[in-house]
């Protein structure tokens, strides 16, 4: 994929839709492309976050450890961004992310991500929206996982 194709990919992501194309070119150039095989782990819950991942192709499961065992709370698809919570909040990863299929990602370092958010406040607003939606989905999945099972004693 050429740098121009990566810029077009980034423009289709709501987070970057209003960012100047020249800045997106810099972002694409400064980012790294990584490929993962199905079932390969991108990072584990508890790891320190050093980058965010944009899904270019494929799917990845976002998995949270619970007392009842692992729960898949989200499946990331093309144009989704994952791993941004740990770099935004400077906390350990809140989930494990594992490739569900062959997965191609664009990896954005913590420093570059922060520079983009600082320069483009609209990105921060889009990140908040995305995180709020994910939090609601996660809460729903956790409630389902922790609900008493019929017939259980």
Please specify the SSE layout and strand pairing.
Blueprint: H1 3-11, H2 21-30, E1 32-36, E2 41-43, E3 51-57, E4 60-66, E5 69-76, E6 81-82, H3 84-89, E7 96-99, E8 103-109, H4 110-119, H5 121-146
Antiparallel strand pairs: 1-8, 2-7, 3-6, 3-8, 4-5, 4-7
Helix pairs in contact: 1-2, 4-5
Can you characterise this structure?
The protein is an alpha+beta fold and about 150 residues long. It has one domain (about 30-145): Jelly Rolls. About 40% of the residues lie in helices and about 30% in strands. It is built from five helices and eight strands. The protein has helices at about 5-10, 20-30, 85-90, 110-120, 120-145, and strands at about 30-35, 40-45, 50-55, 60-65, 70-75, 80, 95-100, 105-110. It has a four-stranded antiparallel beta sheet. A hairpin with a 2-residue loop joins strand 4 and strand 5 (about 70-75). Helix 1 (about 5-10) crosses helix 2 (about 20-30). It is globular and about 60 Å long. About 25% of the residues are buried. The mean pLDDT is about 85.
Strand % is: 25-35%
Compute the gyration radius: what is it? Answer: 16 Å
pLDDT < 50 stretches: none
Overall 3D geometry? globular
User: What name does CATH use for the topology?
Assistant: Jelly Rolls
Class of secondary structure makeup? alpha+beta
């Amino acid at each position: 994929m050429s740098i121009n194709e990566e810029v077009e990919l980034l423009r289709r992501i709501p987070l970057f839709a209003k960012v100047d194309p020249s800045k997106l070119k810099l972002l694409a150039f400064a980012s790294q492309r990584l490929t993962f095989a199905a079932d390969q782990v991108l990072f584990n819950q508890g790891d320190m976050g050093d980058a965010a991942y944009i899904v270019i192709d494929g799917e990845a499961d976002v998995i949270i450890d619970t007392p009842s065992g692992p729960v898949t709370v989200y499946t990331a698809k093309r144009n989704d961004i994952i791993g941004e919570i740990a770099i935004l909040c400077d906390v350990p990863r809140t989930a494990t992310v594992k490739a569900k299929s062959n997965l191609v990602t664009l990896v954005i370092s913590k420093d570059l991500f922060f520079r983009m958010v600082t320069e483009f406040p609209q990105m921060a607003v889009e990140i908040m929206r995305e995180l709020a939606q994910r939090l609601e989905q996660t809460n729903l999945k956790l409630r389902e996982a922790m609900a008493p099972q019929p017939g259980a004693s």
